[in-house]
Structure formats: C-alpha cells, structure tokens
Design goal:
Layout: H1 5-15, E1 22-26, E2 50-51, E3 55-58, H2 60-63, E4 71-78, E5 92-96, E6 108-111, E7 115-118, E8 121-124, E9 134-135, H3 156-164, E10 169-173, E11 178-183, E12 187-188, E13 199-200, H4 203-213, E14 219-224, H5 228-241, E15 244-248, H6 259-265, E16 269-273, E17 277-278, E18 284-288, E19 291-296, H7 300-319, E20 328-332, E21 337-338, E22 344-352, E23 355-358, H8 368-372, E24 375-379, E25 385-386, E26 391-396
Parallel strand pairs: 4-5, 11-14, 11-15, 12-13, 15-19, 17-22
Antiparallel strand pairs: 1-10, 2-9, 3-5, 3-6, 4-8, 7-8, 16-18, 18-19, 20-26, 21-25, 22-23, 22-24, 24-26
Length: 403
C-alpha cells in the first residue's frame, strides 16, 4: 500500500534506533561525525587577557587626573606569543598587537588609528573606556564548560574550536557498515566503451559522495546483473555483513527488476514500499535483524532525492545527531507552479536573496538540474496550484551555494 511522505518519514523515525557503540578518533578525521559525549573545555578561551586590536595598552584610569593631555611614554612592546608582563604606571604605555597578552596593570587598549606617536611618546585622541579592546579570560569559553554537546555533528568550525582548546581526539558514534548494491545489465563503468543500449553507471559515485559528506568513508560497492539468483545471493551477503544496505535500481515492477522478489525471499521485513511522491515513488525501506535496507529507484535524480529525504535522516538517527534531516525553511516562490500529478513533489530549486526558484528539467533521470540546485521545494500531494510569491517549504541541500 502506498503511503504519504509524512508517513514514510514517521516510519523512519519509528524504526531506526541510534547506535550505542562509540569510538575515539583524531579531531582531524572527525568532519561529519557526531559527538557521543559532551566536550569539556580543558582551558579557558582566551586563557589570558588578550588584545583585540593593534594599538597601545595603557593604564588610563589611574592616569586620568594626572594626565590632562592624554600623553603617555612608551616603555616597550608586547607581540603575540610574548610571555612578558610589563608593569605600567601612571603616564606609561606599551605598544601591543592583536592576540598579544595584555599586561595585568593595563585597563584598556587604544587602537593605533586613535593615537599620534612621536618617538617614545603617544597622544591619545579619544578617551578609552575601561576594558576597551581587551578580551577577558574565558570571554569565549570558560574552562570546565561544555561548548559542544553530545549529538553535535562536527563541522569545519567545530574542528577549529576543538583544536583551539588543545583537544586532539573526540568520542563519536561509530559509523554503520555500509554496502551499496548496484543493479542493471545496462550499466557500464566509466572508462569503458559503451555498446548500444548501455549507459555509464553513476549512482554508486553519487551515493558514495554523499556518504563521504556525512563522514562515512568505509563503503563497499557491489555490482550485480539482472538475475534473481545472483541478486539474492549478493543481497544476502550484504545484509549479513552490513548495518545499512543501499540498493540502486531493480525495485520497480519490470520483468527484470529482481530486488523486490529477492528481499521477499530473504524474509526482509517491509516497513514501507512505494511513497506518494515524485520523483522516487518505488522506494523500499525494510529491516532484517540489525540491518536497515533502502532500495532506491534507479533513476539518478530519484536516487539522490530519496537519499536526502530518507537515508540522510536514518543516518542522523543512527548517529544520535541533535538535528536530524536536512534543514527546512520557508521562502516565497518566484513563479507560479501547478501540480498535476496527485503526488507530493520534491522539485530541484535554487535559493537566492529574493526567495526560491524552481529549475527547469525536473525529469527523474536528469542530473544537470541537481548539479545547479541548492535546495528542494516540497509541494504536498494535496496542493495543486501554487501562486507566485506563495511561501513554500524549502529543503536546503548540504554545501549548496546561495549566490
């Protein structure tokens, strides 16, 4: 029985359980991984009073009554990385640079643009505020606090933060063992000549690439011709050796689509089969023991759409990610659209500063539009007419540019 998109998403939430297993890995290899425990800051950031600008550190508060002309004598300089802590007295200052330690006796840093210097003397044009241009100890992060929580999916900025805290390894949820099973007699690997009726196989590369984006690099890719016995044997091995199996093609109802029969013969429990959507209607989701199986439609755009909506969600749940599924926002649509299919639509689109524009060439076999897209516009099956300027649900694709 065909189910709706919302029912299919609910089924993924209901049936996928997060992994308990964790591992410690180097921070440099942790992009896309999900933290298995809170990160506790071993040091404060900054760990010393730090200058936020190039300029001059002064003890202005004490100098106020005795320094009517706002003139100071330079007694030295402090560069970034210097450990020295010169003592400032009334009427003295030090040259200081961004990131350098501010002397304990200084109460402000005056930016160099507001200072006139002559030899070893400076004149300040504008009276500074106490604490001006000084980053306080722990102003960003206090030692002992938890800047990154369990369930945080590590991004490049997260890795930079961890490194700045001196952390070199993190505890993350273990990745699932993944097998991509590619079916189809018509498929040829790149670099080989094409015979009439053949096409170059690309779905495995697409799936492997989006898995890499999610921090999963150990992926087995297996090819099988359109033969029930061979399909069943390879599928049985994939289920036995993997925790997630992604099947590309062979799930429809053609005479040479053997995946559905093979899954049935292997007693794989069907959670759902066929979703009221376009593209990607013949989508299968099932489970056997601790292995999850997604049989994705063979058309490339359908494969990628189903991955982003359902498989990525399953990965986020498996890893215990705090935020699950791609980010959905609401934007005005740039042109009117009519849904004549009686199904929910996932339309390749491009987000810009004015809103979202549905792209041409929405065919499920066409990838050129996906290459230009940075979003999918979701049109429910109950919606037939969308007027220009209507606010529509927009699913942001990972690493997409909005320029």
């Amino acid at each position: 029985m065909m189910i709706t998109v919302s029912q299919a998403i609910q089924s993924v939430h209901k049936n996928v359980q997060s992994f308990d297993a964790t591992e410690h890995i180097p921070v440099s290899n942790a992009i896309g991984r999900t933290l298995a425990q809170d990160v506790v800051a071993p040091v404060s950031l900054p760990s010393f009073r730090q200058s936020a600008m190039d300029g001059y550190a002064v003890r202005f508060r004490e100098s106020g009554n005795n320094n009517k002309n706002n003139t100071f004598t330079l007694i030295g300089e402090v560069k970034a990385g210097d450990a020295q802590n010169p003592s400032l007295t009334s009427g003295t200052a030090v040259r200081i640079f961004t990131g350098a330690r501010v002397p304990d006796t200084a109460d402000a840093v005056v930016i160099q643009e507001l200072v006139q210097r002559k030899d070893d003397h400076i004149h300040i044009e504008k009276v500074p505020v106490v604490g001006q241009n000084i980053r306080a100890i722990g102003g960003q992060i206090q030692a002992g606090s938890c800047p990154l929580k369990k369930g945080h999916t590590l991004q490049p900025s997260s890795l930079g933060l961890l490194k700045s805290l001196g952390i070199d390894t993190v505890s993350v949820t273990r990745n699932p063992k993944v097998t991509i099973l590619v079916t189809g007699n018509e498929l040829v690997k790149e670099g080989n000549p094409l015979a009439d009726g053949q096409v170059y196989e690309s779905n495995s590369a697409v799936l492997e690439a989006v898995l890499h984006q999610r921090g999963i690099h150990e992926v087995q890719i297996v090819y099988v011709e359109d033969n029930l016995e061979k399909t069943q044997k390879i599928l049985q091995n994939a289920i036995a050796t993997s925790e997630l199996v992604l099947i590309s093609g062979g799930i429809s109802v053609g005479d040479y689509d053997f995946v559905g029969v093979a899954l049935q013969n292997l007693d794989v429990r069907t959670i759902f089969y066929k979703v009221l959507q376009k593209p990607g209607k013949p989508l299968f989701f099932g489970k056997q023991n601790d292995t999850y199986i997604f049989a994705l439609p063979g058309n490339p755009a359908s494969t990628l759409t189903c991955y982003y909506i359902y498989v990525q969600l399953a990965f986020d749940i498996l890893s215990g990610a705090q935020y699950q599924g791609l980010l959905r926002i609401h934007l005005p649509i740039s042109a009117a659209f009519t849904n004549t299919f009686g199904r929910a639509l996932f339309l390749k689109a491009r987000v810009n500063r004015e809103g979202v524009t549905i792209l041409d060439f929405q065919n499920s076999a066409t990838m050129i539009t996906f290459a230009e897209a940075n979003a999918l516009v979701y049109i429910p099956e109950t919606t037939t007419e969308v007027a220009q300027g209507t606010i529509v649900e927009t699913i942001l694709l990972p690493y997409g540019s909005t320029q």
